[in-house]
């Protein structure tokens, strides 16, 4: 499954698989109801892919994550991103 994700996104954002696994590991231990931690996670992901997140988008993502509105199923998440 992860090879499929990297096939779709890896070339566009130049992300190393190990870096993604490291952030995923960190995120799995975070309190995703804590706004400060969620914003730090969003900042880490943005830095990893070399992109700046618009403050309005960061606010929207933060709200979605805190409220549990982000799909946990990888296929559903990919559909949202495509």
UniProtKB/TrEMBL annotation:
Q: Which InterPro entries does this entry report, sorted A to Z?
A: SpoVIF
- Tell me the superkingdom of the source: Bacteria
Name of the protein in question: Stage VI sporulation protein F
